């Protein structure tokens, strides 16, 4: 049963589920292996903190780290949102604490005594863990953990590949007692060293190959037991004694004997040098930062591996609680162990027994000594680390070549190399920076122009006489319209400026007079993008065109005002509420300019007079024929129509309300609007003499998709739905003629909309 569904079951069912063979065996075996690995880690972390002159405190220091492995492991195993999560004290915080402990040892006076020094170091460790845990809980409660979801996928992949490389180093280090590095390569390939790590690497490779093709809950536990048995059989057949094998470095031990931790009394606090403790408060901040980033990256990587969305804020809360409790015993900071948690998953376990068994083993070592683990074979422990490391590298380096885009795959390799050379956090940090640069470059290539039009193929909805319509079509190239979309920043805005500059200097086109930038679909812009608009303004002044902004949001308008772009300046900048009114203003300026010169002389010189007259005559004749047809139809339908005189600013139709019938405009002017607020209207189209609105109400129950309002005193003829039905019954020929007339009007509108679509624009609907 999947973990999500299991969490919803009663407690009794969940307990019995844990003891089913398919759950119990993988959980226990994974927990035992993890327990051994965790004990090894905790001992090494203690040795890291209590090193040099502080090594006399190492046995008690091991008790501190094992206490953390025990308590943090239990809390995370029980509270984590994913069963099988393993918690332990981690290396990053331990490395910072090693520096803090050494600093405290230098600062404290010799007269304080060895016990006071040890207790002061323990207090500093506990305080840093308490602060980290408390901040984890606070961030989790504030739901701020999800910010890690903004880390690009290839960065997480590179992080996991880097972890795989570090696990390879750790696995070979466990088997050879040497860290893997270029300087160690000759040593590692000596025959007596090669035999220590090569069999484990081969076995890890075989496990990886088989696990890619075969899955059964007994496979990994069985392999684990067979490997241990095979190791001891080899010792028997070669006649190697246990003491000799231990001396030759084939076992994990020796580990300390007896109890390693005892509770601290309140009287111990009196020996603490609190001044020395608080001088290391900056170390606590560093530990929190490293732990926070590491935990979120671990969880983010883990949910990709297990293919389940893990609640980051829940993990912060549970890890915070674990650290607050562990701080009371002087434990260093701990959180999820990615490799240990993945090992349980790879062994087929989805049970909390993995984390609980691992923690129980730490508890046994803590209270009874870890000497029993001194004879655990190093090749088996190292093989498990190598198996997980190879799995990470195979997934992201081998399979990633096929599954990932090449630029993402290259980023994975770069992060892997950075982690291998500089370490975990520098590698991830470099990956985030590189990913951000790639994103900026790729996003800057996106065309922020949704569509590009001119005044020839996109005119305003304002009704104009035939000669003016013809003239505006001839001069339409002077108006250049760009509808922008997306978020504008310096990259995309610079591309936009380059595009505008090309149009302004294009010798094959008429001089640009109006550049209309429509911000309807723009989500925002950054301050660096404003520099490109400043350059556009300078270009407008140089090339003598007007920069027209439309549909500016309040935020964008405020940004432009701060940059001295939000104020209207004659002949340079104009601002309008919507695109339709902006284009109408540009058209008016063209008509005014054409009338301000001796139009008659210009027309005679250019030969346009005859063309205008011819085009005007054709349009006027067509208009007259349409008007005659309209008046004839009105006359025939007179007995079905209701004549009304409507004042200026009166609603014929309201958006969202039922439409009572058809309105035929005999005289005057109206317009259809979309109402986007109390004072915001977007004009869809003009309704002039001989036009109709509300016609769809005759063909079904419709709510108005837009409002229709008169712009001046008008005379309309109203055809109600009831009168229309009466006309269909009593006068079918007249009804058919009316249907044809409506069809011609709809066809004209469809042709106009198709023309806009051909140029990449849609009419508002």
Can you give a write-up of this model?
This protein has 765 residues and is α+β, with helices and mostly antiparallel strands. Among the domains are: 3-152 and 277-375, no CATH class; 449-596, STAS domain (Transcription Regulator spoIIAA), CATH 3.30.750.24; 637-758, Jelly Rolls. It is built from 29 helices and 15 strands. A 5-stranded mixed sheet has the order 3-4-5-6-7, with helices on both faces. A 4-stranded antiparallel sheet has the order 8-15-10-13. Strands 9-14-11-12 form a 4-stranded antiparallel sheet, with no helix packed on it. α24 links the parallel β6 (546-550) and β7. α4 packs antiparallel against α16, α7 crosses α9 (191-211) and α19 (406-422) runs antiparallel to α20 (424-444). The longest helix is centred in the first third of the chain and has 29 residues, at 21-49. The two termini are 50 Å apart. The model is unreliable at 1-5, 596-607 and 759-765 (pLDDT under 50).
Write the layout of secondary structure elements.
Elements: H1 3-7, H2 11-18, H3 21-49, H4 58-79, E1 87-89, H5 91-107, H6 114-141, H7 153-176, H8 185-188, H9 191-211, H10 219-238, H11 242-247, H12 274-278, H13 281-306, H14 312-327, E2 334-336, H15 338-346, H16 353-368, H17 378-398, H18 400-403, H19 406-422, H20 424-444, E3 449-454, H21 466-474, E4 479-488, H22 490-504, E5 514-525, H23 529-543, E6 546-550, H24 554-562, E7 573-576, H25 579-596, H26 599-606, H27 608-636, E8 642-646, E9 651-653, E10 661-667, E11 670-675, E12 681-687, E13 692-693, E14 707-710, E15 714-720, H28 721-730, H29 732-758
Parallel strand pairs: 4-5, 5-6, 6-7
Antiparallel strand pairs: 1-2, 3-4, 8-15, 9-14, 10-13, 10-15, 11-12, 11-14
Helix pairs in contact: 3-4, 3-5, 3-15, 3-16, 4-14, 4-16, 5-6, 5-13, 6-13, 6-14, 7-9, 7-17, 7-19, 7-20, 9-17, 13-15, 15-17, 19-20, 20-22, 21-27, 22-23, 28-29
